[in-house]
Amino acid sequence: MESTNLSQLPATAVMEASPDGLVLCDATGVILFVNAAMAAMSGYDKAELIGQRIEVLVPTSARPSHPTLRSGFVKADASRPMGPAGDVRLLHRGGTEIAVSIALSVLNNERGHSVVASVRDISERVKLERRLQTTNEALSLVTERERIARDLHDTALQHLYALGLEMQALEMLVDPAMTSRVTSAVDQIDHAIREIRTTVFTLGSAQRQGSFGQEIQALIRQATRLLGFTPRLVINGAAQLLIPANVRIELFAVVREALGNVARHAHATEVLVEIRVEDELTATIDDNGVGISPNALGHGNGLGNLAARATGLGGSFDIQAKPTGGTLVTWKVPL
Asked: Count of alpha carbons within 13 Å of 326, Cβ hemisphere only?
């Protein structure tokens, strides 16, 4: 690039101070100037870019068609403002692609046509927009789940409750030989009620009975009666929104089984149940009991069920005796 004279310095200073990347090309696509922001965005030094064709910054898949598009833009002799779309990519020197928004202008002078491009990194904005879209979809799903949960609670459960009461009343009237069969039927009805309640708890929103927090608290209350003390519960992350229905059912079953094991075998006085929701769901049950014998690992105590519930969801299960005493159960599945 030719040296600038004093009359050009103010314009150059403005271009260098721009927070957006600026690149100036001639009509054939040869880069004549880039500012510091453009160099930083692309990963190249300024001197490395000057003299190269602009296609060095174009993703490989778009390079074959880019010269034709560039030539057509120069012939049209019109400006194109920055748009909101996030489907334009800039190829970083390291090989990664960056979402950008680009404004183009044609400059005409005695030397012919040249093109100046203003390039803005919008990768963070694109991430936020995708996250917002995911959140909106999750909220819509919660609304639909709430409707289904309400229908289940208000219809199916009420009919089952009534049927169960009628069957219990029949126990006093039927022949003794039939009593065991009636009792078995009542037990099956109770099982169906528990299964439907689990579904209702899974589908419910945070504002109604059956939310994640309410269900896990109910489980903790049940465990309190078995343990003789109340486990401490910690929930980190948006469990209500981010844990899918099938994973939530397995999680509750795992926590229930693990706390049951503590009550039966650990002789503990403290238990911490922690549920962490990030890119994966992690549930830990940490007690201060006698610990687990190495001979017991992989045998009994429902450990096989806990491991199967994890592997069935592509996750992992681990149980180990702590050096300080007690047992730590860790159950992880991807979300």
From this structure: 13
